[in-house]
Structure to design on (337 residues):
């Protein structure tokens, strides 16, 4: 069985007291530079690492951050996690990643597990099914630091970071209108998510600028954000079976965008000749499709970095934080057609 080296082991090997070794490793002024040098060189030689469990008991910290996302395979979230890890590991924090797969029940279980593990804070992007955030409010009220990114909870007062979803949706819809399309449908995730509400607002504003009324039958919600292919397929079939079929679709999600192209190919619907598609997506896979798809790209990596910086500030603050930031980052419309 693996037995990690302890301070007592180093003290015994060097003929010093445990307290002297501890102070030398912490670089305190009470210990002479010569003793510090001896202790540090020996610790390096045996590859000594402090016991994280002992440290967490002493400092009441585990130096770990819990991350809650819908799925790591989603291109947006994989890029955001890259940003999270770039800051966390540089600051000495470990990252524990959990996936909800758009399930509210799984989100609750994951949150409880992370809290029971004693994480120092949480980075949260809500699942598509989540409308009740009381499980998070309870932990937040008890003092667990948390920061929301991408899909935020409006009723919890803390730092939040998101993309400018409304502007991104507006830009994508305007581009479709400028290309001559007038019957533009909207495919989106569950209707209560912050990103869905904001992207619907941008889509609506673009239509209004062109004096085009919003048609409810053109708006299709996928309760799990297209995680289940049958959701996307049913929504597309309903749109294409309308008497007045749309000539374009603005898709408000990464997985939905790729799913939409897949469904079009399955039913031999030509893109963009028969129907144009523009969507939110951070995936470079879109470049490989024969059918060009313009997309709104979010600064996912930077969002992950900023959210982590905000969370670590909360964790390490010596005083209660009462003022919070709501950061909104610009999106970019990538034209492929």
């Amino acid at each position: 069985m693996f037995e990690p080296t302890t301070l007592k082991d180093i003290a015994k090997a060097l003929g010093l007291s445990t307290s002297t070794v501890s102070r030398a490793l912490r670089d305190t002024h009470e210990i002479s530079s010569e003793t510090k040098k001896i202790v540090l060189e020996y610790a390096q030689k045996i590859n000594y690492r402090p016991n994280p469990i002992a440290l967490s008991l002493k400092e009441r910290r585990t130096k770990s951050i819990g991350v809650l996302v819908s799925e790591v395979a989603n291109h947006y979230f994989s890029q955001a996690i890259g940003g999270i890890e770039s800051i966390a590991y540089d600051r000495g924090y470990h990252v524990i990643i959990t996936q909800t797969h758009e399930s509210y029940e799984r989100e609750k279980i994951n949150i409880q597990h992370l809290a029971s593990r004693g994480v120092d804070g949480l980075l949260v992007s809500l699942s598509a099914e989540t409308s009740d955030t009381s499980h998070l409010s309870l932990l937040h009220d008890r003092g667990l630091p948390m920061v929301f990114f991408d899909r935020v909870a409006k009723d919890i007062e803390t730092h939040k970071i998101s993309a400018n979803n409304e502007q991104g949706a507006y830009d994508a819809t305007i581009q479709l209108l400028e290309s001559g399309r007038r019957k533009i449908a909207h495919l989106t995730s569950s209707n209560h998510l912050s990103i869905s509400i904001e992207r619907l607002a941008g889509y609506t504003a673009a239509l209004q600028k062109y004096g085009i009324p919003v048609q409810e039958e053109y708006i299709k919600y996928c309760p799990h954000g297209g995680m289940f292919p049958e959701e996307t397929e049913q929504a597309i079939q309903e749109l294409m079976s309308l008497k007045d079929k749309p000539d374009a679709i603005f898709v408000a999600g990464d997985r939905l965008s790729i799913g939409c192209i897949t469904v079009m190919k399955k039913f031999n619907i030509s893109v963009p000749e028969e129907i144009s598609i523009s969507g939110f997506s951070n995936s470079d896979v879109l470049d490989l499709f024969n059918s060009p798809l313009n997309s709104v790209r979010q600064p996912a990596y930077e969002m992950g970095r900023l959210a982590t910086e905000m969370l670590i500030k909360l964790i390490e603050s010596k005083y209660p934080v009462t003022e919070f930031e709501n950061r909104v980052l610009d999106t970019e419309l990538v034209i492929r057609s």
